[in-house]
Amino acid sequence: MKSILIKIVCTLLVFSFTLSCKKKSESPNNKAEWKSIFNGKDLKGWTPKIMGHEYGNNYRNTFIVEDGLLKVSYKAYDSFNNAFGHLFYKTPYSNYKFKMDYRFTGEQVSGGKAWALRNSGIMIHCEDPKGMELNQNFPVSIEVQLLGGNGLDERSTGNLCTPGTHVFYKDSLVTEHIIKSSSKTYHGDQWVNVEIEVRNDSIIKHYINGEEVLTYNKPHIGGEAVNTGNKWKPKENQPLKGGYISLQSESHPIEFKNIELLELK
User: Tens digit of pLDDT for each residue in 149-192?
Assistant: First the structure.
């Protein structure tokens, strides 16, 4: 009888300890949480690098904050003049989820490329912007391309572009600059939600309005599409394990809101 009681007590103690550990692991203090990385008031934490201008120079107020929205604006431009820009968040990341809402508005600024109509992007695994050349057009990075419909044609969004990089897609090395997603076309000025899951140099997934539209892996340095001369040639095939996040300005006005990040352990 005594041995049975001892067994019962031991079982209860183990159960109590297991339950306590489970509750602790599920407590709010131990849960990873989404955090806002845009305060809706100003560009605090974000720094521009625009082609032809020094890092930190917000040329012609390309990036502005109005009505709680982060906007790419061309109100002060007479012509685009190849002023490709990127707004960099202050912190580099390796394993995370990123999400936000975006919409294209108005008309493309004069001088913009035909392919840049209703075109922007989220650049991930970016090189350090402080080291970019003055006239560099894009950071070496992985681009989650954002496209708006032109009112006529099918035009997927959440595509992949590879400025100075390559990836593996469906177990094969892809050296083409663009891989299209399976998303539908979003015409007009409607808000669209985009989410990215980034797992170091392993797997990257794109989601549009909650649906997975593209998956690829093994991002690494390689290829062209970035005017840096031979700067990156010695690093070709080097895995991209992390980097900065930036938002593009490519000649069409666009607005961003609800910009959030979730670090993954």
Answer: 999 999 999 999 999 999 999 999 999 999 999 999 999 999 99
In degrees and rounded to multiples of 5, residue 36 shows phi and psi of -75, 135
- Give the span between the Cα atoms of 181 and 211, in whole angstroms: 11
- Strands 119-126 and 35-36 come out as unpaired
Pairwise CA distance, residues 58 & 38, whole Å: 17
Tell me if the domain spanning 34-263 has CATH number 3.40.30.10. Answer: no
Domain spans, the chain: 1-31, 34-263
Q: Token match 């409607």: residue?
A: 190
DSSP code for 233 = G
The SS3 call for residue 190 is coil
- Give tens-digit pLDDT for 126-140: 999 999 999 999 999
| pTM, 2 dp | 0.88
